[in-house]
Specification:
32 helices, Rossmann fold, pyridoxal phosphate, 809 residues, alpha/beta, globular, Glyco_trans_35, 25 strands, 2 domains, binds 1-beta-D-glucopyranosylpyrimidine-2,4(1H,3H)-dione, 48% helix, allosteric enzyme
Length: 809
């Protein structure tokens, strides 16, 4: 049946009455939201079901993306858009006198991730379905999502984010697909059974993993994939082994928190258990499915590709080996062949401290059989290098060293593909950090530059600009992001440029209204909106931005008539709860903001806004309103970045170091349409090699640096006695690990160029237009299509066919 407005209205009224026994006028936004979500779900359930059946019937090879984080944000609008129902629903609700956008605000963000890594995983889910590719997610259904951030007296305070309190409209619990996982055995012995030696676990306990599936709706193609998130429960048969509340709570804890406190050994063990839990559950369920479809496990790689997103799911490798060896009785060589054909791995960071290493005894305690298998992988690996005459590469690449398991080594040794997430990142992987592996397995290494979903970031988040695009270049860009390039023809068209500026202005007004409500601060949409939104990390250098703000403030105090473009500095950032330095920086940003925002003498030329509780939904509000995008990490440190792509797509101009995907953005838009500064990767590498960097020299010899740094400790910024000193020490006594001072003058100079450029609205709009036009280059659809073709070898199973979601029951 055709999904018409009349049909929708009738169905909406009916379901609202059935579900809540209320009239529209009395219904709460929550009731309206639930009713709407139920209609949307019914609209894609059939396609979802058919998709699962088709894949099984046709024996389509499927990819399984294993990730400890998924950060989809809200799903109502994107599902509606992808189903092609968006306009019909908005118009229907309008007839019912319901404000659609107000209703969407009720939905809690699905925030099962910290930042870029989790958001990328969610973007890939959307892009896979939208490309008609059979690709599924496998992760954890955390009871508490990423913590809720409050700013109290300038400090970050973390509160639990109980996102499931009112249920999750998009999930379906699938009891029949539950699997059991044995952990904490004290001993493994071998027993003969049916002619095979079978390991028997002594001691320990069994946990039940219950999947909650979320349908991932493709863009107007009828393809609905599966995001499977696992919850931990106590199996009935095991109840007696969990007698105390404490023992029961341990199982609840397993899937409670996204990132357990890793400053304690208990927290670290819990994290490892989480990793094994979702890996084992996922692999067991894949094998079950494969066998149920009647396929032979020898042919697993013809039907299944398993992707290891960063090192957190690396236990996939020994777990698949375990199941093939112990349950399916394969010999080692065959099992290893199958495993390496199936597994592929993405590296997302080269920061040494982020490379997971687990103490041997943690893994032994968790699952002694897994430890045995890792030891055997290691033994055979070392032996193979000795045989190949490459024994010199053993120490740097082996899996077990210093009583620790190096997860990166296990990932690379056990996978057929290893990729980085931007050209520079992959080059650094190959030439520096993982060079010894590259020498051993050059054919495994490849690059897959990250991507973003234009649908969410442009079509949904930036309706003003979308309208301008529709009017100017037609609507094909909504289906094929590369068509945004058609905009280039209009780069000198004054009318179009003015419309782009006007759309931006409207988005700025919207953000300003939010800031008034959330921060009680009035900001002018005429000022430059200068945005830095990302996790708070020293290498991302929010501090560099802050030092410049202090410098501008000092200049204005000296000369209140200084001719600068008014600027609003907008930050959104969460610090890891245990990352002290990052929290200190948040405090400093907020106190500098307090000082500046309350100083009448600078005539509103500067404002500093820290938007608390940064999230995907807030990003949807902030990004369309940004004029300037701050991508200022120390070269070599940011693997890729993805906010850089979202911001350019929305017409913000990028101030960037030559790091991560900034380089590819520059290659796309050209040197004239981006503001580049700072040390290059070679300069950073040279400093690191020669250890010649001396931060004190910058402090002592460059007056502007001395003046700014002194402000941190001389009381001129109130309320940061401790934190200001801490930051001062980081930048001087601890020798400024991220070269903030080395890049400071270059940063000031480039920002001066930004200031000048903003004075010419049409020239600015032209640069903005070029960025928008080139934004399609970073479509996640294209990225996953490359993964599909070059790594997973999966093919589209659904072609574009808008009618499919219209078969509404
Ligand atoms: N990244 O968000 C995370 N978490 C990690 O633990 C490691 C890396 C980020 O991944 C993004 C997606 O690939 C990258 O764009 C970003 O540069 C990286 O920091």
């Amino acid at each position: 049946m055709q999904f018409t407005k009349e049909y929708f209205i009738q169905e909406f009224k009916k379901r609202l009455n059935e579900g809540y026994a209320v009239d529209i006028k009395q219904a709460s936004n929550f009731e309206l939201y639930q009713t709407l979500a139920s209609i949307v779900r019914s609209g894609y359930n059939n396609a979802w079901h058919q998709n699962i059946k088709n894949n099984a019937r046709e024996g389509n090879k499927q990819a399984y993306y294993f990730s400890i984080e998924f950060l989809p944000g809200r799903l109502l609008q994107s599902n509606l858009l992808n189903m092609g129902w968006y306009d019909t629903v908005i118009s229907g609700l309008k007839d019912l006198d319901i404000d659609f956008y107000e209703v969407t605000e009720i939905e809690k963000d699905m925030a099962l991730g910290n930042g870029g890594l989790g958001r990328l995983a969610a973007a890939f889910m959307d892009a896979l379905a939208s490309s008609g590719l059979p690709g599924n997610g496998n992760g954890i259904r955390y009871k508490y999502g990423l913590f809720k951030q409050k700013i109290v007296d300038g400090y970050q305070v973390e509160l639990p984010n109980e996102w499931l309190n009112q249920g999750n409209s998009w999930e379906v619990r699938r009891d029949s697909k539950a699997v059991d996982i044995h952990i904490n055995a004290t001993e493994v012995s071998l027993l003969e059974k049916d002619g095979h030696l079978v390991p028997v676990y002594h001691g320990g306990k069994v946990i039940r993993a219950v999947p909650y599936d979320v349908g991932v709706v493709g863009f107007q193609n009828g393809c609905v994939n599966n995001l499977r998130l696992w919850d931990a429960e106590i199996p009935e048969s095991e109840e007696v082994n969990y007698r105390t509340l404490d023992e029961r709570r341990k199982i609840e804890d397993l899937t409670s928190i996204l990132y357990p406190d890793d400053s304690t050994s208990e927290g670290r063990r819990l994290r490892l258990l989480q990793e094994y839990f979702f890996v084992s559950a996922g692999i067991q369920s894949i094998l079950k499915h494969h066998k149920k479809a009647g396929h032979n496990l020898n042919k697993l790689a013809d039907y299944v590709a398993i992707h290891i997103n960063d090192t957190h799911p690396v236990l996939c490798i020994p777990e698949l080996m375990r199941l093939l060896l112990d349950e399916e009785h394969y010999g080692w060589d065959e099992a290893w062949e199958i495993t390496t054909q199936v597994m592929s791995y993405t590296n997302h960071t080269l920061m040494a401290e982020a490379m997971e290493k687990w103490p041997i005894h943690y893994i032994q305690e968790l699952q002694p059989r897994i430890y045995q298998i890792i030891c055997e992988i290691e033994r055979r690996y070392v032996e193979s290098l000795e045989k190949r005459g490459q024994a010199e590469l053993i120490p740097s690449t082996r899996i077990i060293a210093d009583n620790q398991i190096r997860m990166v080594s296990l990932a690379i040794i056990g996978s057929h593909s290893v990729n980085g997430v931007a050209k520079l990142h992959t080059e650094l992987m190959k030439s520096q950090v993982l060079n010894d592996f590259y020498r051993l397995f050059p054919e495994r290494f490849n690059n897959k530059t990250n991507g973003i979903t234009e649908r969410r970031w442009l079509q949904i988040a930036n309706r003003e600009l979308s309208k301008v695009l529709d009017k100017t270049i037609g609507k094909t860009w909504r289906y094929a992001a590369d068509d945004l390039e058609m905009l280039l023809k209009y780069q000198d068209d004054e009318k179009v440029l003015k419309e782009i500026n006007h759309a931006k202005y409207q988005n700025k007004v919207r953000l300003a209204e939010h800031v008034k409500k959330s921060n009680g601060l009035k900001i002018s949409p005429d000022a430059i909106f200068d945005v830095q939104i990302k996790r708070l990390h020293e290498y991302k250098r929010q501090l560099l931005n802050l030092l410049r703000i202090i410098k501008l403030y000092q200049d204005l105090k000296e000369n209140p008539n200084l001719d600068i473009q008014p600027r609003v500095f907008i930050f959104g950032a969460k610090a890891a709860p245990g990352y002290h330095e990052a929290k200190v920086i948040i405090k400093c940003i907020n106190e500098v903001g307090n000082l500046i925002n309350n100083d009448q003498t600078i005539q509103d030329k500067l404002k500093v806004v820290f938007i608390e509780d940064y999230s995907v939904s807030l990003a949807e509000l902030i990004i369309p309103a940004a004029d300037v995008s701050e991508q200022i990490s120390t070269a070599t440190k940011e693997a890729s970045g993805t906010s850089n792509m979202k911001l350019m797509l929305n017409g913000a101009l990028t101030v960037a170091t030559l790091d991560g995907a900034n380089i590819e953005i520059k290659d796309q838009v050209g040197d004239d349409n981006i503001f580049i500064f700072g040390l290059t990767k070679d300069e950073v590498t040279a400093h690191n090699q020669t250890q010649d960097y001396c931060a004190w020299d910058y402090y002592n010899n460059i007056p502007v640096i001395k003046r700014v740094l002194d402000a941190l400790i001389d009381g001129s910024i109130p309320n940061i006695q401790v934190e200001g000193r801490h930051v001062f020490d980081l930048l001087t006594r601890f020798n400024d690990q991220f070269f903030v001072l080395a890049d400071f003058e270059g940063y000031l100079a480039i920002q001066e160029q930004v200031d000048q450029a903003y004075r010419k609205p049409l020239a600015w709009a032209k640069m903005s237009l070029i960025n928008i036009a080139k934004g399609g280059h970073f479509s996640a659809d294209k990225t996953v299509q490359r993964y599909a073709k070059e790594i997973w070898h999966i093919k589209p199973v659904v072609e574009k066919d808008e009618a499919k979601y219209d078969s509404y029951q």
